[in-house]
Amino acid sequence: MPPPADTVKVAIEWPGAYPKLMEIDQKKPLSAIIKEVCDGWSLANHECFALQHADSSNFYITEKNRNEIKNGTILRLTTSPAQNAQQLHERIQSSSMDAKLEALKDLASLSRDVTFAQEFINLDGICLLTQMVESGTERYQKLQKIMKPCFGDMLSFTLTAFVELMDHGIVSWDTFSVAFIKKIASFVNKSAMDISILQRSLAILESMVLNSHDLYQKVAQEITIGQLIPHLQGTDQEIQTYTIAVINALFLKAPDERRQVGVESSVDILDCPLTEMANILAQKQLRSIILTHVIRAQRAINNEMAHQLYVLQVLTFNLLEDRMMTKMDPQDQAQRDIIFELRRIAFDAESEPNNSSGSMEKRKSMYTRDYKKLGFINHVNPAMDFTQTPPGMLALDNMLYFAKHHQDAYIRIVLENSSREDKHECPFGRSSIELTKMLCEILKVGELPSETCNDFHPMFFTHDRSFEEFFCICIQLLNKTWKEMRATSEDFNKVMQVVKEQVMRALTTKPSSLDQFKSKLQNLSYTEILKIRQSERMNQEDFQSRPILELKEKIQPEILELIKQQRLNRLVEGTCFRKLNCRRRQDKFWYCRLSPNHKVLHYGDLEESPQGEVPHDSLQDKLPVADIKAVVTGKDCPHMKEKGALKQNKEVLELAFSILYDSNCQLNFIAPDKHEYCIWTDGLNALLGKDMMSELTRNDLDTLLSMEIKLRLLDLENIQIPDAPPPIPKEPSNYDFVYDCN
Q1: Residue 590 and residue 576: Cα distance in Å, rounded?
Q2: DSSP one-letter string for 370-419
Q3: pLDDT single digits (tens) 288-325
Q4: Residues with Cβ < 8 Å from 99, sequence gap 6 or more?
Q5: How far apart are CA 608 and CA 590, in angstroms?
Q6: Domain ELMO: where (predicted)?
Q7: In this model, does residue 336 exceed pLDDT 50?
């Protein structure tokens, strides 16, 4: 007979004693359960004890999380978090350096538990740690040189404990002194510093900047780009990642230009408007250093580094938002001069009329004619073409850049189209405006970076004016595609759709340079796009005749069952999920997989990302499928309703799902990508006997149905299909016939 639903069977350990097997009644108060355990081992003062998980997490059991205890869990009887916090608070102030070091090591480990963290913080533990960092650093370093090498770990454990305690969000970042900020900044500014100390110092600075505007101002006065660059030139990718994360944080929190900030007094300080900061980044050659020492380094780029490069890419492109949303003022002479410059570069060879009687009318007539050749919609006053936002003045900036830096190509495009018949000319002005708008949409200019995206493009780190160069390549592509399509003005939108497809397909290949991107586009001519479209249409062909529809209806359940089995098999293999919080993306993981009999979900925390499948026995927590009440997604998830930065992020919202079980219990997920999100939501719905409704299921169903129908419609008359597959032939005696095409 199965145990009651409110009872769980566990094992409880106590040092020096045999473990106890015990049934815990979840309706009973936790203090009563602890008293019962203590009485079994004849331990007095049960209020000084607590239960914690015996796995690597060592998390305390509380009234809030006790429902997470599952059958078969191994627990440990230990001192209460309050008593443990009090003891550690005293031990880290010990006069013995060895005792202090051991205490700090224990504190760094225990601080991950929010229950212990709350007790330690209540003892003003954060203040004690900051005082130790401010006043004790020099003493630690002297002792490291004079006595034992292990004293170098003391500061590292102190900073680790501080980071873990602050990650719980219990204490405000605004409470820290300037002296503490200066000390942390000094660890980053020193040329020779222990790797673990440097890593934690960078993490602290990033959190300060992201969580407090006042601290941003103070950190910006202590840290300069010049002092951060040496860390990018090293070989440790984790240090490089944290360094770029600090730069991104400073970039993200930099005030806009409307704030009057004096920059002249300190040229390299990051307390300045966004555009000024961008100029400083350019002066320090940050882009080329990242390209050389990170992107083109002889090692793979991990997910966290890819994310930080993506964030830097987004923030850099977001500098264009101001120009993108600025309308042209037709009365502004400086802005009008840019249009005059475009005309001058294109038609400079043409003679100017003399300043004689009536020349003003001739000049106006000539300008109108030239503006028409340049492809503006408003021939009389082309400034009116730039009053729509987006792309606003950004389009005019791109046109001028193209005219000045690619003058031959610019003149060729303008003159080519001005000499064509009207119906086949490609309007350069209108094309440039629409193309700029399209490129801004593709690169999501003006949107905040996603918390989970790793989609950076190496080619944008190869040039200081990468967006302008990107535009120059694409405007030449547009002109080429226009000619290949023999388009007229009525086909303008069709041409833009083809160009967008060409650009998107080329970007998906992640070209390493702008030249490589240009080469990819050369292979994606209009003819090639038509072939790709035709191929995709054939693959997705949907026969509408009645016999075919009946056949589809007959075989669809079989295909759906095949998809269901694939989804369940993927759940059995399991997936590694990343833990996220509002401070930053952490290298903390947890794994979840379905048991082979499809009856239990096994899950648990991991120290690092696994290389393959994680065995069931290493995952401590279990959730019977029978206990699952519902699966919710997106904004209906409990962890998406909480206050925090993730709530506002659309991409994270689209990857979130939760399993609801028992009463007010849930298992919260954020999938690593859209594919895994579809796999898991489909698989969980299949386990609950519900329909699989994801986009991936629809695509798989369409593809497999199409393949199955085509196979069944093959002309196989008088062709005998064997029941068993043909045998694999023996290997040849030699491979002399192989020709290496390379």
Answers
A1: 6
A2: HHHHTT-S-SS-GGGGG-STTTTHHHHHHHHHHHHHSHHHHHHHHHHHHS
A3: 999 999 999 988 999 899 999 999 999 999 999 999 99
A4: 91
A5: 9
A6: 334-507
A7: yes
